[in-house]
Design brief:
Layout lengths: L1 H15 L4 E4 L2 E4 L1 E4 L2 E15 L2 E12 L6 H6 L4 E7 L6 H15 L8 H9 L10 E7 L3 E6 L7 E3 L2 H12 L5 H10 L7
Antiparallel strand pairs: 1-2, 3-4, 4-5, 5-6, 6-7, 7-8, 8-9
Helix pairs in contact: 3-5
Length: 199
């Protein structure tokens, strides 16, 4: 009887284990994240690639976590509800300077060039990436109503920065989910929205 019970338990574990995480380009992303007491689900995941000397180089793996799955980019961007973007650096090509340069470019596009009203918040956000960025670093960019945007590095329980307000939140998530001119960012947005599988 005990042997049969152990076999049954093992069978269950084997069955459910694959659903505990999604693997994208060798990076495991959990199916859920607990943010501010809310259980968020993985909405979609993908790889940020950039064309360098005519070749696409993989820079980081990203996963979008929401209260409920959605493929509506604008609804997600405008939603005043908990959500998170997990970023795992997978290339030594990423430096603090390059990441911040790309982020500022993203803010320009997500705000259609109108960054002035939130420039102070943008500067605070980019300061979270001022320290050296290494291959393997993990960043959680989290939005919680009433608290604002927070950035956590390498599993730390203490936020590197906390920025209140919806304007910075909508502009920030618009970087990854909004209309972008770069094709690779368009592909990543579809992957995060769950409408295109990561390659």
């Amino acid at each position: 009887m005990l042997k049969q019970l152990m076999v049954a338990i093992f069978a269950v574990v084997v069955f459910v284990s694959p659903s505990l995480a999604v693997t994208v380009d060798g990076v495991d992303l959990p199916d859920t994240l607990s943010i501010g007491g809310e259980q968020l689900v993985l909405n979609g995941a993908g790889v940020r690639a950039k064309k360098i000397v005519f070749v696409d180089k993989k820079l980081y793996v990203a996963g979008l976590y929401l209260k409920a799955k959605s493929s509506d980019a604008q609804k997600i961007i405008q939603a005043d509800e908990p959500m998170a973007l997990r970023i795992k650096i997978v290339s030594s090509l990423i430096t603090s300077e390059r990441f911040n340069e790309a982020t500022k470019e993203g803010f320009q596009e997500s705000t259609k060039g109108n960054t002035a009203p939130i420039q102070k918040e943008i500067d605070t956000f980019t300061s979270a990436f001022a320290d050296k960025i290494s291959n393997g670093d993990l960043f959680d960019i989290v939005y919680t109503p009433g608290t604002g945007v927070q950035v956590f590095k390498n599993g730390s329980k203490t936020a590197t920065v906390t920025i209140a307000g919806m304007p910075i939140k909508t502009a920030l998530f618009g970087i990854w989910l909004g209309e972008r001119t770069e094709k690779n960012m368009q592909i990543l947005a579809k992957q995060l929205l769950g409408t295109e599988a990561a390659k």
